[in-house]
Design brief:
mainly alpha, two-stranded antiparallel ribbon, 6 helices, 2 strands
C-alpha cells in the first residue's frame, strides 16, 4: 500500500460500534446491563410512590409493615441504581450487598405472604413480586449475574480469585 492509499475499510457486516461487545456472552451481559439500567430506576420510583402513598396519604392505614417493606425495597432499588452508575469498588460492594439483601427479602417475604398473608399484606415482595411482574424476583438475580461478569468486574476494578497475596477479592484502596 502506498502512502496515498487509504487503509482497507471494514465491510458492512463488521461491528463499527466499539461500545457494543462482540461475542454472545458479552452481548448477554450488555443486554442485562441495559435492562437493569432501565428497570431499576422505574421500580425505585414506583415502589417509592407506593410506600409514600401508603404511609402518608392513604386514609385508614393501621398496619405499617407492608408500606415499610415497600420503602425498604425502594431504598434497595435506589441504592443499587446508584451502585450501577458509579464505577468504584465500594459501589460494586454496595450493589452486591443490596442485591443479596433484596434477593433474600424477596424469598422470605414472598414465602411468608403465602403462609401469613394477613401480616405481610400488599408489598412489592408479596408473592415474589406478582404485582410488579415478578421483577423483584428475577431482577436482583440478573443484577448479581451482571455484577459478577468479567467485563463488569474489570470496569469496577475488582479482581476475584487467587493472586500472589492469596485467595479472595483483590482490590487496592479506592
Amino acid at each position: 500500500m502506498s502512502q496515498f492509499e487509504s487503509p482497507p475499510q471494514p465491510s458492512g457486516d463488521q461491528n463499527l460500534d466499539s461500545t457494543k461487545p462482540a461475542d454472545s456472552m458479552s452481548d448477554f451481559i450488555y443486554t442485562v446491563g441495559i435492562i437493569l439500567g432501565l428497570s431499576y430506576p422505574v421500580l425505585a420510583l414506583s415502589t417509592s410512590g407506593r410506600a409514600i402513598y401508603q404511609l402518608i396519604f392513604k386514609p385508614g392505614v393501621t398496619d405499617f409493615l407492608p408500606p415499610a417493606l415497600s420503602a425498604v425495597a425502594a431504598g434497595c432499588y435506589l441504592g443499587a441504581t446508584f451502585g450501577f452508575t458509579v464505577r468504584r469498588k465500594w459501589a460494586w460492594w454496595l450493589s452486591v450487598g443490596l442485591l443479596g439483601f433484596e434477593t433474600c427479602m424477596t424469598f422470605v417475604v414472598g414465602t411468608l405472604s403465602f403462609i401469613i398473608p394477613e401480616v405481610i399484606g400488599r408489598t412489592v415482595w408479596r408473592h415474589f413480586g406478582v404485582d410488579y411482574g415478578f421483577f423483584p424476583l428475577f431482577q436482583p438475580l440478573l443484577g448479581l449475574i451482571w455484577l459478577f461478569s468479567p467485563p463488569i468486574l474489570r470496569a469496577y476494578g475488582i479482581s476475584l480469585g487467587r493472586s500472589e497475596k492469596g485467595a479472595g477479592v483483590n482490590e487496592s484502596t479506592d
